[in-house]
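Self-study notes.
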Amino acid sequence: NIFKSIKKNDHENVNKVVKIYMFLTLCLTITFSIWCKEILHLLIRNNSLLVYYAWSVVIVMSYNYRPYYVLLNQYLSYNENVKYLPYFTFVPGIINLGLNFILMPFFGIKVAVYTTFGCYILMGFAAFLFKKMRDSFVTNYTPILILTFIIVSTFFCYFIVDSNFFVKGISNLIILIIAFAILNDFRKKNPN
C-alpha cells in the first residue's frame, strides 16, 4: 500500500499509512511491555528464565523501528536507490555485533539487550540523519517526535512492569485513551 501510494505520488496517504502503522505498533508493544511479566508467567514454566522479563520490555519496544524502516525500504525501492539499503540494515547489524563483542565481557549479556534496542532504532531512523534521504521524503514524518516517544515509552514500560495490577491497568487504560484520542484527531484531519 505504501509503495502504491508513493508510485501515485500520494504522499498524504503514505503519511497516513505510516502513522497508523506506527500507532498500532506502539499500542501493541506498549501494552505487551506493561503486561509482559504476567504474559511470560503464562507462557514460560522455567522459573530461571522468568527473571528476565524486564529485558523483554526493551526488546519488544525496539520493534517500534519497523514502520519507519518499511517506509525507508519503500522509498528506496521506488526511487531505485536500493544501493543505500545495506547502510541502513547491514551497518546497524555490524555495529550491534561489534558492541556486543566489546561490551559483553565487561557488562554481561544484558548489554546485548540495549545494543539491540539502539541498533534497531538506528535501523529505522538513520535515514533521517542524512540530508539526501530527508530531501527524498516529500512529507514530514516527524521522526524526532516519534523517536522521543519510543524512548520515553520504553523507560515508562521498563519501570512500570514491576507495578501492581491496579497501577498497570490504570496506566494502560490512560495510554490507550490518549492513543485513541490522537488517532481520532488524526482521522478528523485526514478524512480519506
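Second protein, same conventions, sequence then structure:
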Amino acid sequence: AICLGLAKLVASFSMICALIMIPMAFANTLQTMYIFIVLFASSVLLSDMLTAKKVIAVVVAIAGCGLAIVVGDPSESINVIGVGLALLSAAGLAADAPLVKTMHLKGAGPQTTLFYSYLIPSIILLPIVNLSGIFDAALNVEGAALDMFSLAVLATMVPYFLENWSYSKLNINVVAVLNSLQIVFATIIGYA
C-alpha cells in the first residue's frame, strides 16, 4: 500500500513539474508511454499473456495521444529536464497499475486502493502545501466552493474510483489503454 501511494506521488509531482517546463500536449503524450511499461510489466509480474492484439491496441492509443502534439504549438521549445520528468511520471503510473491489480487480487476493494493511493501522497505533501493560499482562494472567489467540489469530487475522486474499480474487473492493459483516451478527448475538446 505504501508503494502504491509513493508511485502515485512520483507520477503526480513529476508531471506537475514537467508541465511547467514543456508544452502540455507533449508532456501528456510522453506520460502515456506508461501503457507500454504496463504491457510488459503485466506479462512479467502478473503472468499476463502478451498478444499482438494488446500491442496493436497500445500502439494505436499512443498514436492517438500523439495527435495532441500536432494540435500543440510547434514553436514552443522542449526542455530536456521536462521530458525526463514526464517520463518519470510515466514510470510512476506504470508502477501504480500492477500494484493496484495485485492489491485487488489479494482481496482489496477499489475504495481501499483509492484510499492508499491518495492518503500517502497527501500525508507526505501536507507540510509543504500552502494551505492558507488554498483557503484564501476558496473564500475570496465567488463560486469557488462549487469549483473546488467539482474539481475534487467530480474530476478527481469519481474518475480515480472508476479506474481503481476497473482494475478489479478488467485486464490492466485494457485499463491503461482506456486511460490514455482522456488525452485524445481533451485534445478534441480543446481544439473544437
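Instructor comment on the second fold: The chain is about 80% helix and 0% strand.
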